[in-house]
Design goal:
Length: 267
Amino acid sequence: MSTSRFIRHVRLLLAALFLSGVLAASFANAQAPESSSAQSEPVVGRNSELARESRVAAGEDEQAQFKHSASVQWVAKVTGLSLENAYWLCVLLNFAVIAGAIFYFSKKNLPSVFRNRTATIQKAMQEARQASEEANRRLAEIENRLSRLGAEIAGMTAAAEKEAAAEGVRIKAAAEEDARKIVESAEQEIAAAAKLARRELTTYAASTAKLWITEMHGRLVDQCLQFFGGYGFMREYEICRLYADARVLRIYGGTSEIMRELISRNL
């Protein structure tokens, strides 16, 4: 059934109920006995008041009042039904009118409500989708920054390792150069002392050679030990044994102090 047709039927039904009420009222006025018009108004008022009081006293409810109303009696007369059947017909008509009105207004208003609700939900979904896209975009930016940061850290680590390797090579070369210079200096001094000893080996010359050689030997081994750091004091390393051997040279065969005393006697 289309909407226009449904509205037309509802209007016809409402018009019929309105006309039925109007006709029932006019029919009740037309059927009123002529003798009642002859009576005085105070008597009619007292009779109606007494009738209401008697109905209340008899315990009549609204249903009984509606069943004996003028509209129900008019419907019973028009349709030829009994008063009970006319009452139920009126109840059905009222229910049909109320249901039709509810259906009409629901059909008229609910779609707009549902449309508004759907639009709200779609708007919320759109906002949630935009928020999700924004979060994904920010997450991608953070991942890109982290990847760039990782590349920078890797580059810095490689540069630091390269510099450390170069520094190690430089330190090693400097140590080798120092050792070479020390060895050359010691060789030159030893050669000069041997040449001098070959010329004239006296007590003065022997004491001088022994003092100078042992002192130079001690200083040389001490500098070599310095390159090894803490490892130079571990017996597992040869430098530790060499240091101990060099130290004893300044004691046996005449201590350095005795050598200095012998040298001072010839000054």
